[in-house]
Recover the amino acids of this structure.
């Protein structure tokens, strides 16, 4: 049976990541980078497309698993009739080549173990040539090479184009497997001690987690989400991928399967906010710097997403040899949405740089001139239609969220000039633009009959992105139009249990695609935020805690949730979902702290009186 998406856990080395199932199988791993070809692609096909399983003989699913403390080191326990064994999976932060390390440790009794590894390069399409060399099994195909060894050595043999091992561990005994990738033309990779690497990894993660400034009631969930965001960071550049996977479906058996192994500008403000609120200013600065490098150039050429180092060409293609997760085809690599026009990204970039400046991050000399250039281009284009935040693959429209973000761009520029009159720029000009955008959105993007902002001008469809109006400051939280929008989105886009979809896919062709999708988790966090901002903190808290309950056993969230089948959907784990979790947790904790302080002040005043 195909594991559910939530059956997987994440390990990584800040340059790539792997998914490990409850059955002990590594079913997804791209080497050497997040956006490289996968050498284990069973996640999107079957075992013949590459996997690595370590488990007790005859066992199916593990007994329990958890991360070791506040780390990305996964510990999986198997209780068998003859004893208990623990498998420790991790990827140490690398100097050069990536390593996957799997340490099998006897806990009690004696357990017979098996390891089966099928390396299949280029997304499961290439069977490598295997040979032995100095105690290693070496797989080579074209530019790729992988070296497998165990400490101590165990019995290993080839069978059906896989490498098999059989061994026994008793209480206190350990066997470590190390898989190292390196370019096939390079000399043999340097040996790394797996036990020393484990200690270093645990220490590194403990020190990183200790920097978290959040101490509220949801700390465990927040720190796990922050660790996940760190794991999705490409260390050399500071870019953060939307997810480490491609083509996990938004609908089982459907075609809404996209490659998320890239960096989206739409995430920039929310990502910065989450990192800054938790005290991770170094990571926030690295993301800000990636953003500045990526968007540099002609503002007319601004893209909605970029590669890990800011690459611009991300051509989309299909992999017909992969059947897709639970036959959800096609499997895609690359993303054609990179060529779409999404006017909201101009506002998101300018808002991000304003947020970074307000947080005290060191200012970059060219950052303000870049913002003026982006704003100058937006001034002449904001009235045009676009594909919108959700990368609609249908006809361009005048999306309300895109227009609101154009307002944000002008508003943040005005506020920056008011805060620092020494900056170059025409505040009156940007105020005029801000007022024009606001006036048009309220006239053309608002339905007075239903008291709600709509998805686009003149449409009846709604869009969960309009929930962000509360966050942007476009309207005050007590404005009836904003409150009406929150209620309408919750009512019309509700997907059961309080969660919301991005927009309606029922009987419309707004996105040009067949089928539907699940509730969008980031939007559901936005609903919690909007409820809090409009004075409904209890409802916001209840929804937030409901969302927390959807995390899997190791605290991870995908992009979407199927409320009928009660399972996660979409690429996994999803940065957008975890960013939403952190932001909502911090805001709710601040709200509760403010309420408690106000109540204490009232009580004190009453006593004094």
């Amino acid at each position: 049976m195909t594991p559910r998406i939530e059956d997987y856990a994440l390990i990584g080395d800040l340059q790539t990541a792997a998914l490990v199932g409850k059955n002990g199988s590594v079913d997804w791993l791209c080497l050497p980078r997040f956006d490289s070809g996968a050498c284990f692609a069973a996640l999107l096909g079957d075992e013949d497309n590459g996997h690595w399983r370590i488990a007790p003989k005859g066992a199916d699913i593990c007994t329990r698993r958890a991360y070791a403390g506040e780390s990305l080191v996964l510990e999986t326990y198997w209780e068998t009739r003859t004893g208990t064994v623990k498998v420790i999976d991790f990827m140490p932060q690398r100097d050069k080549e990536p390593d996957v390390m799997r340490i099998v440790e006897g806990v009690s009794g004696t357990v017979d173990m098996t390891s089966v590894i099928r390396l299949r390069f280029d997304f499961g399409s290439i069977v490598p040539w295997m040979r032995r060399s100095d105690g290693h099994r070496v797989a080579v195909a074209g530019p790729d090479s992988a070296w497998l060894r165990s400490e101590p050595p165990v019995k290993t043999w080839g069978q059906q184009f896989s490498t098999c091992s059989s061994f026994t561990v008793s209480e206190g005994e350990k066997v470590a497997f190390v898989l190292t990738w390196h370019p096939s033309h390079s000399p043999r990779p340097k040996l790394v001690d797996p036990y020393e690497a484990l200690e270093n990894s645990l220490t590194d993660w403990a020190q990183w987690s200790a920097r978290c400034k959040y101490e509220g009631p949801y700390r465990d969930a927040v720190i796990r989400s922050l660790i996940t965001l760190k794991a999705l960071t490409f260390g050399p550049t500071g870019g953060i991928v939307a997810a480490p996977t491609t083509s996990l479906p938004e609908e089982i058996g459907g075609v809404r399967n996209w490659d998320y192994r890239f960096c989206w500008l739409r995430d920039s403000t929310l990502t910065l906010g989450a990192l800054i609120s938790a005290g991770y200013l170094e990571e926030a600065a690295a993301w800000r710097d990636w953003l500045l490098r990526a968007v540099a150039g002609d503002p007319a050429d601004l893209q909605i997403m970029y590669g890990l180092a800011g690459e611009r060409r991300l051509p989309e293609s299909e992999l017909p040899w992969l059947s897709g997760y639970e036959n959800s085809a096609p499997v895609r690599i690359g993303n054609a949405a990179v060529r779409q026009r999404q006017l909201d990204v101009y506002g998101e970039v300018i808002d991000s740089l304003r947020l970074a400046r307000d947080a005290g991050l060191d200012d970059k000399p060219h950052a303000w001139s870049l913002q003026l250039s982006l704003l100058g281009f937006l001034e002449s284009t904001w009235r045009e239609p676009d594909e919108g935040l959700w990368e609609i693959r249908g006809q361009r429209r005048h999306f309300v969220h895109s227009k609101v973000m154009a307002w944000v761009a002008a508003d943040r520029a005005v506020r920056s000039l008011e805060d620092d009159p020494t900056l170059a720029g025409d505040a009156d000009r940007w105020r005029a633009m801000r007022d024009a955008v606001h006036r048009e959105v309220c006239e053309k993007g608002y339905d007075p009959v239903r008291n709600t902002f709509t998805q686009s001008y003149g449409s009846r469809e709604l869009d969960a992105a309009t929930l962000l109006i509360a966050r942007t400051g476009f309207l005050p939280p007590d404005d009836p139009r904003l409150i009406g929008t929150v209620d309408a989105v919750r009512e019309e886009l509700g997907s059961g249990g309080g969660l919301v979809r991005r927009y309606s896919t029922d009987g419309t062709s707004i996105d040009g695609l067949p089928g539907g999708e699940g509730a969008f988790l980031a939007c559901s966090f936005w609903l919690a935020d909007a409820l809090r901002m409009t004075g409904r903190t209890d409802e916001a808290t209840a929804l937030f805690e409901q969302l927390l309950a959807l995390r899997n056993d190791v605290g991870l969230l995908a992009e979407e949730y199927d409320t009928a089948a009660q399972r996660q959907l979409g690429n996994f784990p999803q940065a957008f979902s975890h960013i939403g979790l952190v932001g909502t947790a911090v805001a709710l904790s601040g709200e509760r702290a403010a309420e408690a302080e106000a109540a204490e002040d009232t009580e004190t005043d009453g006593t004094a009186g």
